[in-house]
Design brief:
transcription regulation; transcription; mainly alpha; GntR_C; Four Helix Bundle (Hemerythrin (Met), subunit A); elongated; two-stranded parallel sheet; about 220 residues; 12 helices; DNA-binding; GntR family transcriptional regulator; Arc Repressor Mutant, subunit A
């Protein structure tokens, strides 16, 4: 098998089912504790049960589902420990990325454009679009710093964090997040590494306030 064949390999049906369910879990369409039925989902999307079963197994390995023998598959609770771990890693990595980026003449236009997207999504109350733009803003910072692989590593860490974000962004003031993003961008435009690092840290520490409040409001959705 050639390298070109490997690159061109299409996404499997099981992978597509996994990705679809993964997004529904992150958005909260499938809340913690909800039961997943192979039969129901297979009928809903017009597939056999085998790719659905494979998707369930992958979701369990992601920490997003729990397979209970003789009982079925259930959406897992949000791990507060995993949220805090991902947040800590992101703060350490992204504050370094900000310092790297402030030391070079980088193209920050994508980050600027995403702020406009966030303004529109916030005005329209479109939480999913807002969070997608939030992700692209942070990704753009990594790309501008020449660290695309670093962002891919961060993406693999933050599923539990994203579940919390979809909940918190429905409750807390999204304009505050936009203001934090603006502070990061302004510092980068000024080539002020200290201010850029401080702005990133302040932004990512917001979750330390949001997590206990959301967990207190939805105790059945969280686990240590």
């Amino acid at each position: 098998m050639t390298d070109a064949t490997l690159i061109a390999r299409p996404v499997t049906t099981a992978q597509q089912v996994h990705d679809w369910l993964h997004q529904r879990i992150l958005r909260g369409d499938l809340p913690p504790g909800a039961r997943l039925s192979e039969t129901d989902i297979a009928e809903q999307i017009g597939l056999s049960r085998q790719p659905v079963r494979e998707a369930f197994i992958r979701l369990a390995s992601d920490g997003l589902a729990e397979v209970r023998p003789q009982r079925g598959t259930y959406i897992g609770k949000i791990s507060a420990r995993a949220v805090l771990s991902a947040r800590l890693i992101r703060e350490a990595v992204e504050s370094d990325l900000a310092r790297m980026l402030a030391d070079r003449d980088a193209d920050l236009s994508t980050m600027e454009a995403e702020l406009s997207v966030q303004d529109r999504a916030n005005a329209q109350g479109d939480v999913a679009a807002f969070i997608a733009s939030d992700d692209r803003f942070h990704q753009a910072m990594a790309l501008a710093a020449g660290q695309a692989a670093v962002w891919q590593d961060l993406e693999r860490l933050k599923s539990q964090m994203n579940r919390l974000r979809h909940m918190s962004m429905r409750v807390f003031d999204r304009s505050e997040t936009i203001g934090q993003h603006r502070a990061i961008l302004t510092a980068l435009q000024a080539r002020d590494a200290d201010a850029a690092e401080a702005a990133v840290r302040a932004h990512l520490r917001q979750m330390l306030t949001e997590l206990p409040q959301i967990a207190a409001a939805h105790p059945d959705y969280f686990t240590d």
